[in-house]
Write a structure and sequence with these properties.
The chain has 69 residues and is an alpha+beta fold. 52% of the residues lie in helices and 36% in strands. Keywords: Membrane, Transmembrane, Transmembrane helix.
Length: 69
Amino acid sequence: MNIIEITAIVLVVAGILGLVYGSFSYTKSTHGTTVGPVELSVKDKQTVNVPVWAGVGAIAIGGMLLLWL
């Protein structure tokens, strides 16, 4: 397998996952402070929506790369 085949497969898999799940979320620690023995932190939950066109585009580009080889 060369680098183009691996890239194509990764694009197809990422496109399929983007279409199946539609979004993903992660937790980001934004503020932290220590006041004596007490430690305070704020954690924000962020959600990233994956557009349908991005998933379809990744599958199409990955497919074209696989067919081009």
